[in-house]
């Protein structure tokens, strides 16, 4: 049976929100188990207050906690009995199929690289993010793990992103765009121009340069970029959604008539809000490392963790996304020398 | 009296939409004149079909047109009788207070640099863009003119952006943020870290690193970034707005009740749409050159040009933004050597 290892102690609302999210997930869906890692006594107390199938959540004790302001490399190296390091070790020993943490992002990335390790052929693992568009979901890759990228990284992001969208959304040939300042071929700085060249001859369905608004148009399935642009885009997208929802709320609370309209339309707006709710979209896999590591954001609530388990971890395990990435890179000759200007 | 020089031939919808926009502007507001530059016969014919004060729009003939796919430098150097080059020359000869064009962006930037020239002390002029936030308008600078920037450029963008927001929006001390992948001090790549250092000791109210969602929160007044990130952000913002409006439209057309609600709320939604309408926000000045050059986007409609004249050009002239930028840089010692890692 699928087993998901969860860092009970990571994140602003840990451990309660994390544990509540796990219980919600277990109560909503069959077919998987959870291993909670952290301070056993604390976890047990929260579990005891709730109703769920006791056979589906177990606890592995870890006495330390990596804090949000700990230095990533130091924390991973020194806090051997932290929930995060113990969680990584369980994953490495194949005691689970995925490890989810809402803890210190830098430490999680460092742990994924140092304790789990890169897939052969991949220079830079990446953290992608999904956003809604006018058509399907769109994957932004990288969304924050690599703030400076070489052209070869863009190609590798494109290959991983293509596999992700192919397996998870059953797309035959995901359309890959290079996020740029214009849609014409020769746009952008030298790195982007070289990335364009590599992508053009790479094993992906590259449709060329794209602009910021093409993310939301849905004309591409994967937007390839460095983690600086990707991170700003992802967060701006969330911010724009929040701004527009606030404006709409203002319109509906204007007078009695608009308030009545809101009551009449409440259920329709609920679906709409959930589609743009960052908590529903949360849970990003670190693609390019040997096991499935999933980052949930620091302010994760119970529903964020529930989504990360049900909507992110389980589909990624069931669709064998990591295996497909390993296969593709094993059979590929990666030539970082292609990186240079020809 | 203020005179605005307008390139009648630039843009996808030129010359009709451009000329219509000028007529609308003249009919809506007193106190300025317009000089239309382009093919005299064509312009005259369109003007003849409309009602407006004939003393307020005149024509300067130019027989050539710079096309959207012309190579910028070549076009500016060779097409001496194009509406764009003639417009630039009129501006240089002080025959007008601003020059607006919706034509070839590259050519407009090249012309601004070659024919008008940089203000002393400014290494890289910049194209900023305004977006709405939960509080006031926020200026993204640079929004596309410079895809690779050195740390000193960020400082210069910040100074120009600060002056812009101070004079146009009467802010005492505009809050300047550096657009980054996290809000902590030591975030981002080396360029961003050095830009952070320069901004910290610069003559601006620097509040530190900001993330994508801080653009829409309104907690900063100016978001400083390179033109790659800024351009993607601006266009993604527009795209997110368009996506959300589409979703809302879908909700309102669901059934008879929701359709009725829409009718009841129509006027409230009109204000909302206009706030997020890219055409209303259009018209970006090239800050850092000696005269006021304003770029309106290629797909400008009549209302876009009207906005560029009434909401962008005239306030920029009246508030003497360029003079203030010139004064500030004249009295400042710019040391590009501060650029390097210390």
Topology:
The structure is a homodimer of 342-residue chains.
Chain A: E1 2-7, H1 16-28, E2 32-38, H2 40-48, E3 57-61, H3 72-78, H4 83-92, E4 98-101, H5 105-116, E5 129-132, E6 137-141, H6 151-168, E7 175-179, H7 190-200, E8 205-210, H8 213-217, E9 222-224, H9 227-252, H10 256-276, H11 278-281, E10 284-285, E11 292-295, H12 302-318, H13 321-330
Parallel strand pairs in A: 1-2, 1-4, 2-3, 4-11, 6-9, 7-8, 7-9
Antiparallel strand pairs in A: 5-6, 10-11
Helix pairs in contact in A: 1-12, 3-5, 4-5, 6-7, 6-13, 9-10
Please summarize what this structure is.
Chain A has 342 residues and is of the alpha/beta class. Chain A has 13 helices and eleven strands.
Polypeptide structure, described:
The structure is a homodimer of 342-residue chains. Chain A is built from 13 helices and eleven strands. Chain A has 342 residues and is of the alpha/beta class. The first copy, chain A, folds into two domains: 1-123 and 286-319, Isopropylmalate Dehydrogenase (3-Layer(aba) Sandwich); 126-278, Isopropylmalate Dehydrogenase (3-Layer(aba) Sandwich). In chain A, the strands form two sheets. Chain A has a six-stranded mixed sheet with strand order 3-2-1-4-11-10, sandwiched between helices. In chain A, strands 5-6-9-7-8 form a five-stranded mixed sheet, sandwiched between helices. In chain A, α1 links the parallel β1 (2-7) and β2. Chains A and B meet through α8, α9 and α10 of A and α8, α9 and α10 of B. Chains A, B: It is found in: Cytoplasm. Chains A, B: Pfam families: FA_synthesis. Chains A, B: GO terms for molecular function: phosphate:acyl-[acyl carrier protein] acyltransferase activity.
């Amino acid at each position: 049976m699928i087993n998901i290892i969860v860092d009970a102690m990571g994140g602003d609302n840990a451990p309660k929100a994390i544990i509540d999210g796990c219980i919600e997930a277990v109560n909503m869906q069959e077919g998987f188990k959870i291993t909670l890692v952290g301070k056993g006594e604390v976890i047990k107390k929260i579990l005891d207050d709730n109703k769920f199938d006791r056979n589906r959540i177990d606890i592995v004790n870890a006495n330390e906690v990596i804090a949000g302001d700990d230095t990533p490399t130091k924390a991973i190296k020194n806090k051997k009995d932290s929930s995060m390091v113990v969680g990584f070790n369980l994953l490495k020993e194949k005691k689970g199929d995925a490890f989810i943490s809402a803890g210190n992002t830098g430490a999680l990335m460092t742990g994924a690289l140092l304790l789990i390790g890169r897939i052969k052929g991949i220079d830079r693992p990446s953290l992608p993010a999904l956003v809604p568009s006018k058509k399907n979901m769109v994957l932004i890759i990288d969304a924050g793990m690599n703030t400076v990228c070489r052209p070869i990284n863009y190609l590798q992001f494109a290959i991983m992103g293509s596999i992700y969208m192919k397996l998870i959304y059953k797309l035959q040939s995901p359309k890959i765009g290079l996020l740029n300042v214009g849609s014409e071929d020769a746009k952008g700085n030298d790195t982007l121009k070289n990335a364009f060249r590599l992508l053009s001859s790479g094993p992906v369905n590259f449709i060329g340069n794209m602009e910021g608004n093409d993310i939301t148009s849905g004309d591409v399935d994967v937007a390839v970029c460095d983690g600086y642009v990707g991170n700003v885009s992802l967060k701006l997208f969330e911010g724009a959604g929040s701004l527009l929802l606030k404006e709409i709320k203002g319109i509906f609370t204007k007078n009695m008539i608009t308030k009545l309209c809101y009551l009449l339309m409440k259920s329709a707006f609920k679906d709409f809000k959930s589609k743009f709710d960052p908590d529903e979209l949360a849970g990003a896999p670190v693609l390019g490392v040997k096991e499935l590591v999933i980052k949930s954001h620091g302010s994760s609530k119970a529903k964020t963790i529930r989504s990360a388990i049900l909507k992110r971890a389980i589909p990624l395990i069931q669709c064998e996304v990591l295996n497909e990435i390993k296969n593709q890179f094993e059979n590929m000759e990666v030539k970082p020398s292609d990186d240079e200007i020809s």
